[in-house]
Amino acid sequence: MATIKQIASEAGVSPATVSRVLNNDLSLSVSEETRSRIFSIAEQLQYKPARLKRMKQDQLISTIKVGLVMWSTLEDEHSDPYFGAIRRGIETRCEELGIGIDKVIRGVLKSEVTPLTELDGLIVVGSVDEQEVYRLYPHKDRVIFVNHDQTPDDCDSVQLNFGQAMKEVLRHLYELGHTEIGFIGGSSNPDQHREDGQHEDPRTRLFSELQQKRGFYNPELIYLADWSSNGGYEAMLRMLDDGHRPTACFVASDPMAVGALRALHERGLRVPEDMAVIGFDDIEVSAFLTPPLTTVRVHTELMGRTAVQLLLERVEGREITSHITINTKLIVRESSGTSR
């Protein structure tokens, strides 16, 4: 692709002169012979102005048809805003670019029988079975996985840096003197989790691995429930009823942590004096709980926007697979307490 600099070199004038001539700047004092020479060279080199390239790009974007596959249901999003925030990031970025979301599928894909081959790309949010995705949409180079725990190497992906998050959480608790640390995590099927280990949430796996490295791992302190405040409430009650009362507990989502805090309050246990609690998400209510919740701040809307950008790059011709990791930040508040 020819550039203004190349045209200037051929015409024997400055790049600024070429730019002003090609943009029909009538205030420029230049001979007709020079002006004609510049236009002739630009035509020979097949120069396309940046604005023309932008127009063509905008026309391409406006015709893109995108499909969205959500692991979560609307009820899931109501009880835990994590996936809803990712979806909003996708929708907002598509709206800004003029990209249409032509198809939205929620839950299990097996009920879908019509192929999605008319779409220009597919964004998959959550741990959806990738084989079911490929059955409906075989173009792997146009599939973007977001927050998928087993992303295929030949597809683009956007992930949270769960490793960084879990290391910061446990480092914080270790520095406060905690070694007996409980875990309350989410699972779509809590009863089967320990038997098959399929689609295990990264927080569950990383918590276990890091605790094992420190020699503090206790499988009896790991409880799974559904991703909701009620799930966190019931999991904490089970932990206490089983006679397990660690000095601290990490809860894998803030809505679950809300339920866990309620269970502790009902049992007359003080937070953080009797048990420190840390959540994950940093939803708006976290700072207004009693006590305010220490939690991991995640940039979920950025994850959604990044997925749209990756898909756009693929449509425009990028061939190399890209895996983007979004960092998190530990927000320390009163629920984790001070040094023991």
Describe this structure in words.
With 340 residues, this protein is an alpha/beta fold. It has three domains: 4-47; 60-160 and 300-326, 3-Layer(aba) Sandwich (Rossmann fold); 162-298 and 330-336, Response regulator (Rossmann fold, 3-Layer(aba) Sandwich). Helix content is 42%, strand content 17%. The protein has helices at 4-11, 15-22, 32-44, 50-62, 74-79, 82-97, 130-136, 162-175, 193-196, 202-214, 229-241, 254-266, 300-315, and strands spanning 65-70, 100-106, 121-125, 143-146, 156-160, 181-186, 222-225, 248-251, 276-281, 294-297, 323-326, 329-331. The strands form two sheets. The chain has a six-stranded parallel sheet, with helices on one face. Strands 7-6-8-9-10-12 form a six-stranded mixed sheet, with helices on both faces. Helix 12 links the parallel strand 8 and strand 9. Helix 6 (82-97) crosses helix 13 (300-315), helix 8 packs across helix 10 and helix 11 (229-241) crosses helix 12. It starts with a helix and ends in a 9-residue tail after the last strand. Residues 2-57 form the HTH lacI-type domain.
